[in-house]
Amino acid sequence: MPRRWTRPDLDGLLEKQYGLVRRDQVLGGLPDALTKGALRWRLERGVWQTVLPAVYATHGGPLSREQRAFASLLYAGESAQLTGPAALQLHAVHSAPADELVHVLIPDRRRLSPARFAAVSRTHRLDPRATAIGRMAVVSPARAVADTVRMVPGLDPNAARTLVVESLQRRLTTLDALQDELRDGPKRGSLLLRAALSEVEQGLRGSPLTQLRELCASNPALPTVRWQPALIGPDGETLPTPDGWIADTAIALEIIAPDLDPSPEAWTRRLRRQQAFTEYGVLVLTFTANELRIDPAAVLATIVRAYLERARAGVRHTVRLA
In angstroms, rounded to a whole number, what is the distance separating the alpha carbons of residues 152 and 172? Predict the structure, then answer.
């Protein structure tokens, strides 16, 4: 017998929305919707509180960081995306600067004024790579970094550079993606972002990744290597971004760099990263910066040998470029 469809109740909605609700949600569309009088009674007696226009918290006291972020999205409405430091925090970026405001993006066809802690920006560039984190639409790390550097007043050059470096070292994004954001984004506030990217790019010229690029390019036995490409699985699922990618034999090249986060959680993330590749038949070759500096010939020999062996075996895989 088919299950009867039932409308969600208010308690269920509040559980999903961090104890927050918008006026139109609570006054209609639910089997236990409130009357205007019941809503006013809760607000007047402090059982609930207004945190943004037409957005209510069903408790007294201050909001958590997640509640402030979700409240801003509720206020911004349909198609809104979280960006700036709040987005960086949800991406677990440790160098995200403190900011009293929660920055949200809305389509440029809409008009909405900022309110209290919700800073609303209209844009014709909603992020197509936004993802859902904790029931919130959050822009990609590249967009979050770029918007943070542009939007946070008083951010100093060292903080901007640290933010860029962390996002690259932890492979949250790539230099190409950040350069794309610089090129395609608004010019206002981009001077600091441009300077940070230029400084980081100059530092990367002698980096282990540059050494690996030059090493692979020096051997005619290797095909073209894609550097820090966005990869997806057969059903469109996002895979980790390797430092190097040999597509026809599904070989990922990884460089172990000093980790900004040596915690057990960071180690677990590295293991899951490896497992994500393995599940799709990808061979991961991992090298340290010391190996590249001390014995580059051995590194190259390992890559060439693995490539030739997998090419002869006719390795098949379903990973493709995004």
Answer: 20
